[in-house]
Amino acid sequence: MADLKFTDDQASDAEVAAVAGVLGDTNATEHTHERVVRGGTARRHAMRHLLLPALHALQTESGWISRGGLNHVCERLGVPPAEAYGVASFYELFKVDEAPDHDGPVTHVCVDGPCRDGSELVIAQVQAAGGHTHRSPCLGQCERPTAVFIQGRRGPDVVEADSTPFALTQAGNPGLRLLQRMGVVDPTSIDSYREHGGWAALTRVIEMGADDVLTALSDSGLSGRGGAAFPTGFKWRAVREADGDTKHIVANCDESEPGTFKDRLIMERDPFALIEAMAIAAITTGADRGWVYIRGEYPLATERVRNAIDQARAAGMLGADVAGSGQPFDIEVRRGAGAYICGEETALFNSIEGFRGEPRNKPPFPTTNGLFDQPTAINNPETLLNVLPIVLDGARAYRSVGTEGSPGTRLFCLSGHVAKPGLYEMPFGTTLGELLDLAGGATGDTQAILLGGAAGSFVTPDSLDLPLTLEDTRAAGTTLGSGVVMVFDTTVDLTDMCTRISEFFRNESCGQCVPCRVGAVRQHEMMVELTGRNGQGLAPERRELHDDMARAMADASICGLGHTAASAVASAIKLGLIGSPS
Amino acid sequence: MTAVQQPGQSTEVGVTISIDGRDISVGEGATVLDACKAAGIDTPTLCYSDNLTPVNVCRVCVVELEGSRTLIPSCSRPAEEGMVVHTDSERVRHSRKMVIEFLGSGVDLSQADDLNTWADHYGAEPDRYGPKAERIDEEVKIQDDLYIRDYDKCVLCYKCVEACGDDAQHTFAIAISGRGFEARISTEFDIALPDSACVYCGNCVAVCPTNALQFKTEWDLREAAQWKPEEQTVTTTVCSYCGVGCNLEMHVQDNTIVKVTSPNDHDVTSGNLCIKGRFGWQYVQPSIEKR
Ligand SMILES: Cc1cc2nc3c(=O)[nH]c(=O)nc-3n(C[C@H](O)[C@H](O)[C@H](O)COP(=O)(O)O)c2cc1C
Ligand code: SF4
Ligand code: SF4
Ligand code: SF4
Ligand code: FES
């Protein structure tokens, strides 16, 4: 038990009310005298997961995490102020240094990838109109550069809705599996969802039973779409077999890999499908609690998922007895607050639990020691959506497209210099060139293509024949990652792009482990140095140094962020796209 | 208190792993680091301490495990039957060297004696990042007469946070704030230590591997170029303030107590003390200046 000590800073009445809106009136702690509170450990632990929502409430109310506001939240939750400050200062969407000098919203402008070209202009325009701006890492709207996200003050956060002409070029195409309803169904209506085939898979799962679902999943060869390509059947079986009264299903909707926007469109355009797949996961694994962790910059997706959960609950698809299956399962939505690393599964657990979003060491794995140290199946939304056709049509039909090693279809996020940037579903094995053709072809002279996002690697137009499968990309030394295909024509300064990618990792490293925390900074400095050399390229010993750094980062870092933080830059150097004398 | 089996102790239910080609048996619950110790292999560690929960963040203790894509931290990874481990492969030497080099390129390691020995061993060259490499640049925090915080020397090993929190003191006065290279050990809003929850147990000072946290007495002597560890004697005694029976090690230079520690392997303290044992020697010796 800890005695907590607070400074004398007091929360404003408005802050107290804002926090009460999130915490209700249960306190984790009781006052004993003026500056000290005592709390029951169990109750404190049980409430800690409300820290992040409470901090969101403070930020929206005051435009920053004020000292008095932090004290108040800590007092109510029994969290030591130093720890809460450590949590607040971890996130990009929380301001901790000083009170803002204005009362208005803040426009976050993306400075990554295809948005990079237009960001300074947009920033200048917003400022000229008297607005306030913030340079943001990829906002997950890469199909409509330059992306902006408006962080509200005492009002809602806003992103542009459903406006891009090409976002879903394939909409209505009967061959689609994952995108079949998108752009066709009314994403706000459970009736519309049912009319378009919704809940049939859940009904089927209740008839089949968990064992048959697990067999179908394993036979299908479905592997994770969040980046690591882990076999989903294996994961779900491990959770089913794990001991534990409480088990969790988590949908990882943190989607912050630069170039990725598929999960946003899934949530915005077909949110009920995500809920149905999570209910299936619950019945199959025996999980009773569900969580959708959505990145803070996705307000529309958050609203649509919340609405879908409410309607599903009202229809008996969630709650004490899911669709008559006997399985209890309900879902809570959690908003991230601006941290790419919180997409790493164990960092995400820490974030939900109210701790800093620092990845945990593995083993132990989430299937036994996940959220709240309990068995957890965490999946990407695209992975979850694949479960629906697998249970409806069977594993064999599922495998009828794709390759032996990469069965089924894949979502690709096309952005940059293509005629129709947007989200595309194609069977695994489609070549890079075919995919670009589908998107209306490359515009301009293609210089390079970034596959897999900032954590992926560059390829050149020589690779247009590359079949997009897990095995072929691996053999070619690249990756599909989260499905990013970002096209750069010859007008793009790739040294600048690589400098920005290295800055991204520098900013997003959680800072826990040395190889990533320092390596990412040294890599960024090297890119800045390269920019300053005006086309003289990298000296041989600097190339060697980059190689030395990249190896140690890949070998000795704790998590995937550090493992991959040097790969895009390394690929660009290796292909001669940057670093050679011009 | 329940009896806990000491990791590393060889018992009937042990595991055997191969380390650098030799079979080593250790008790259930032992780590790979314990097994390395049992094999007589010296391993660099920075964030590990036998009185703290391993956080495995510094990565200087990594070893190569056959079948694992990446290297693994020996300090926290439980030894499992049949593991085949290499502690001196090219990959291991490279990563250990780079970790030390990375740290040396941004942090003042001048008083991190153990690490400097390893830096030589692995041939770390922190200078090759050039003069423009960004360094941690913080003003030393001298906010009281008991201990100072010089975060230029901080390697973010988390030890002080653990000692202040769950692992010893349960005070939670300090935590990690910020992210990435901007991450720092900090009180809330970086308020001064005397305004924070700190109770001045000095347990954070005791675990700091780089002297980022040090007794004010030591700091003052170093500033005056009068710090002479080779002339110091250490006298063990039992703290006289209360009946708990904490062992104290009084470090004495020129007949003056310059700092107080407690042995990590002492049953009562595990290296931890309270403000009285740690800093309450002034009644023996009012202050350095009045000497
Ligand atoms: C730095 C980092 C960021 C990640 N971000 C995401 C993400 O935004 N969404 C996601 O599904 N997986 C992300 N992952 C992968 C997850 O850790 C995890 O593998 C995935 O959620 C598992 O789901 P799957 O098996 O369905 O792919 C990330 C991994 C790392 C290392
Ligand atoms: S690799 Fe980077 S992001 Fe991952 S734990 Fe280490 S410092 Fe944090
Ligand atoms: S002296 Fe004790 S209470 Fe103060 S910061 Fe250090 S460990 Fe925490
Ligand atoms: S101050 Fe010392 S103990 Fe604390 S993190 Fe830094 S180096 Fe480690
Ligand atoms: S001593 Fe093992 S990671 Fe630091």
Helical/strand content category of chain B:
alpha+beta
SSE-based structural type of chain A: alpha/beta
Q: Say how many strands of chain B there are.
A: 12
Number of strands of chain A: 15
Number of domains of chain B: 2
- The CATH architecture of the largest domain in chain B comes to 2-Layer Sandwich
CATH superfamily annotation of the largest domain in chain A: NADH-ubiquinone oxidoreductase 51kDa subunit
Shape-level CATH architecture of the largest domain in chain A = 3-Layer(aba) Sandwich
Low-confidence stretches of chain B: 1-6
Contiguous helical run count of chain B: 7
What oligomeric arrangement do these chains adopt?
A: heterodimer
Please bin the fraction of helical residues of chain B: 10-25%
CATH fold field value of the largest domain in chain B: Alpha-Beta Plaits
Distance N to C terminus of chain B: 44 Å
Silhouette of chain B: globular
- Gap between N and C termini of chain A, in Å? 64 Å
Description:
The complex is a heterodimer of chains A (582) and B (291). In chain A, helix 11 crosses helix 12 and helix 12 crosses helix 16. The mean pLDDT of chain A is 95. Chain A is built from 23 helices and 15 strands. The radius of gyration of chain A is 24 Å and the shape is globular. Chain A folds into five domains: 13-88, no CATH class; 106-159, no CATH class; 190-398, NADH-ubiquinone oxidoreductase 51kDa subunit (Rossmann fold, 3-Layer(aba) Sandwich); 409-489, Ubiquitin-like (UB roll), CATH 3.10.20; 494-574, de novo design (two linked rop proteins) (Up-down Bundle), CATH 1.20.1440.230. Chain A is α/β, with parallel strands linked by helices and 582 residues long. Chain B is of the alpha+beta class and 291 residues long. Chain B has two domains: 1-135, Ubiquitin-like (UB roll); 141-284, 2-Layer Sandwich (Alpha-Beta Plaits). The radius of gyration of chain B is 20 Å and the shape is globular. Residues 1-6 of chain B have low confidence and may be disordered. Chains A and B meet through strand 1, helix 5, helix 19, helix 20 and helix 21 of A and helix 2 and strand 7 of B. The structure holds flavin mononucleotide, iron/sulfur cluster (3 copies) and FE2/S2 (inorganic) cluster (FES). One iron/sulfur cluster (SF4) binds at residues 163-164, 169, 171, 173-174, 198-204 of chain B.
